[in-house]
Amino acid sequence: MSTATAQRGLRLWRRARSRRGPNTALLLGPSVIFLLLWMIVPLALTLYFSLRRYNLLMPARRGFVGFHQYANLLSSGSFWTSLYNTIVLVAACLVLTVVVGLALALLFDNEFFGRGVARTLVISPFFVMPVVTALIWKNMLMHPVYGLFAALYKALGLKPVDWLAAYPMPSIIAMISWEWVPFALLVLLTGLQSLPNEEMEAASLDGANGWQKFRFITVPHLGQTIYVVIMLESIFFLTKFAEIYATTSGGPGMATTNLPYLIFLESFFQYDIGTASAIAIFAVILANIVAIFLVRFVARNLAEGAQA
Amino acid sequence: MTATFSRDRSTRRRLRRKWLLTLLAYVVALIFFFPILWMLLTAFKTETAAFTVPPRFFFHPTLASFGEALARGDYLHYALNSLVSSLVSTGLGVLLAVPAAYAMAFYPTRGTDGTLLWMISTKFIPAVGVLIPIFLIYKDLSLLDNIWGLILVYTAMNLPIMVWMIYSYFKEIPAEMHEAAQVDGANTAQVMARVVLPVAIPGLASTCLLAIILAWNEAFWSINLTNTAAATLPVFIASFKTAEGLFWAKMSAASALAVAPILVFGWMAQRQLVRGLTFGAVK
After folding, report:
1. What is the pTM of this model?
2. Is residue B93 predicted with pLDDT exceeding 90?
């Protein structure tokens, strides 16, 4: 059997050589090995740690505990709270960014004087580093005394609010959405611009009004694009960390602690590597539920590209 | 006469609608840009001017806060770390990604699609899923708070996107062009240097731009893997979070310096960004 494998390997090797091409294994190898070492091996180690008792403060108490730590998590309030927070954060940011992003994409799909400048201004928030976003919002906009929102409220005769204390999660959602509406806008605009003009003109000639054109031409055409935006954003929103770290530090209480922040707390404040790893595996599973669909979608595009 | 009149009116209505939409677009643009503008304005204030109630839009601009932010000495240290980590990780990424993309674009095998998809899927492993082992291994290899440790993580973080983007640019090069060069007897390195890379330079440039932006803005890894020696600008700026309400002008000046170059890069790379971040799923 091993001879058969060897022969098959030799045949493949000869065929590869006979095409006079370079040794592709040599060209691909470094990238593959690099990703294996920095992504796949650590992921496997996380899985391994999650099955062991491993606390840096208690080096003597180590050993295999199976799914014990997972079972502990399922009965721990902080895990469920942060899972709930994660899902609320992802869902709210998705709805906001897709709805506002779509509205803005339609607005910016029109030709008008200075469109390039206006579009450039709108997408700027996406390039601001999340730590800076967090500090601008926390201090200069949302500060209950010196912030701009407070000044605005006072001008309207209302009592200023300490946003991050009174509405911590909505405040975080607002910040993240401000950063990511531009991303949704950019991608959806790209999708809109591939919509053939003739279709719209034909619909106009048939007497379709604006809403009908939107409902029966634009939305179906954009369906795939919206799908991609939702999946990509879900994966990014699941791992939001900097905005929370720089504003609420997960608080007040646990009001803004999501899974990544809980892992950060467990590993760097409790030194509980085992439990933190088990939470990390949950986060990976959550991300993978989304990523599988996305990768399948990309695969289909690759296959289509090969045929074209 | 009446016909001209009614056509006139409908054109006028269309024109008014167009003006309203244009106005709306400008208003939206200003609202979205406003927090950035406000940061830039605050950067040109003194600390006392930054704390007026109500906030002031017109004031005597000064460069004092920039001076103070820079004079704290460590600013340049962090900026240098940011610069080195984003540039070197991007350079390493290009060195790894170009050969891989070349092999997959011009010598596809049955395994190529699978390899490419596997690479893309590693981008979807959340950073928290690999943080703990990397932290522990780095501790043993004394790569914690070490600029090389950060560089290697950034390279791994951006590699899937870079391979994908460069692959997609290589795919746009006509196969005949590539074959003609081979018939002339050029070897792989020559084909790459003389035919493929010159054509793909704009694509490579935007790939690098995107990688630099992503590495420059990255906070999760730098907060968790560095302390001071290798810490980047996001770590420095995050340190203002504890100095609650005291140094807004300085914070804004430091932020403005950190954000401005990336804003320019981002504006330049906005079109390629969609290609890179959606892995060709949106065209």
Report:
1. 0.84
2. yes
CATH number where A226 lies: 1.10.3720.10
| A131's tokens | 């730590």
Which residues of chain B are within 8 Å of residue A303 when distances are taken between CB atoms?
A: 113
**Cβ contacts from A onto B, under 8 A:** 311
Rounded distance, CA B52 to CA A56, Å? Answer: 48
Query: Across the 308 residues of chain A, what is the mean pLDDT of every consecutive 10-residue run?
Result: 64 55 81 90 87 78 79 84 91 93 89 84 90 87 80 82 86 93 90 79 79 81 83 84 86 86 84 84 85 80 67
ipTM of model: 0.82
Query: In this complex, which of B216, B241, B266 lies closest to A135 when CB atoms are compared?
Result: B241
Tell me whether residues B131 and A267 touch, CB distance under 8 A. yes
The domain locations on chain B are: 2-43, 67-278
Tell how strand A63-64 and strand A52-53 pair up: antiparallel
Q: CATH number for the B67-278 domain, one of 1.10.3720.10, 3.30.70.1050, 3.30.420.40, 3.40.50.1860?
A: 1.10.3720.10
**A contacts of B136 (beta carbons < 8 Å):** 273
Q: What is the largest CA-CA distance in chain A?
A: 86
Residues of A in contact with B278 (CB under 8 A): 187, 228, 232
- Closest CB to B159: pick one of A31, A134, A194: A31
Contact criterion met (CB below 8 Å) for B99 and A27: yes
